[in-house]
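Here comes an entry:

___
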Amino acid sequence: MRRHVPPTAALQAFEACARHLSVSRAAEELRLTQSAVSRQLAGLEAMLGLRLFQRVRQRLVLTPAGAAYAPRVRTTLARLEGATRDLLAHRGAGGTLNIAVSPTFGTRWLVPCLPSFRAAYPGVIVNFMNYTTRLTPLDFAAEDVDAAIMLSEDAVPGVIRHRLMRDARLPVCAPAIAARLHGPADLAREVLIQQTTRPRGWVDWLDQVGAEGVDGLRGPLMQHTAMVAAACVAGLGVALLPRFLVRREIEEGLLATPFEQPLHGDAAYCLAYPEAAEDIPALRAFRDWIKNQALDA
């Protein structure tokens, strides 16, 4: 039986044109001539019996059919490329995992722990992709990600989550600032560094400890945890940070914790992956390993 599977070259040409909306830019990316790309598009449209593009003022515009087809082709090509890369990387033994993780969590906690994983599973290759906080759920298939480590509060249908460690944040600052903090009310005289991932963190913490007369919303706003930690080390203010992400600075005397009351909440760092990926041997190995590592965090 003949299958309705277009040639890979035609799909690559279509995907590049759909992304750039330009035959010339697609040709440059694919290292082909414009006429070669145009022939691939024409052949694909003839095979499908559908127009995928229209030309409007010498510019490509996706038709409704093309707009629906493009993301699915992009996902399929990405997965095919990933499977090929996986095969070539370990010659069929072990496995390859693509893990999305925030740079701060990766550099400050995960990567320093990885030698023990490599020693236990030398045949598994772990690739890391940048994960940032987003408004919409991560599309594991579209972004070619096997699992993600994320700060999460809510369950997502079809996604398995394993809690690793609570997002228990407590005030941290340079030792010189900590020396003049005798109670939470003293924070009224200090700069409170705000973080975009927990915009009401200080307000909630001050309310939790019963501190009055302190404006929990004032202070500079920063996005990345690593930048917030660096600002604290530089003596720029006091911030709420998880202890495990600044453990090195605390042990080295670069940061101090003037108050030991952590900010309570349901948020936690979790390992998340699609239900369909649960039986992947390399992912099971990584899951068991990281859960064990998190016990000591």
Q: What stands out?
A: Residues 169-251 form a domain with the D-Maltodextrin-Binding Protein; domain 2 fold (CATH 3.40.190.10). DSSP finds ten helices and eleven strands in the chain.
